[in-house]
Amino acid sequence: MAGRGAEEHPHGADRLCAAGDRLYSRAVRRGRVPRGDVETVPCLLELALLHPDPDDMDWLVPTSPQEVMTRLLRGVYDEVSASQRRMGSAVAAFEWYAGLGRQLHALTGPAEGSAIRVLDGLSRIQAAMDEATEACTAEVLTVQPGGIRREAELTEGLHRALALRGRGVRMRDLYTHVARHGQGLLNYLELMGDTVEARTLDEVIDRLILFDRTVAFIPANTDRTMALELRHPALVEYLVTVFERLWRLAIPLTAPLPDTGIEGISHREQSIAALLAEGHQDAVIAERLGISVRTCRAHIARLSETLGAVSRTQLGVRIAQVGLDVHRPGPPSAPAAFTTPDQESPTVR
Question: Which parts of 9-109 fold into alpha helices (H)?
Answer without folding.
Answer: 18-30, 43-46, 65-100, 102-108
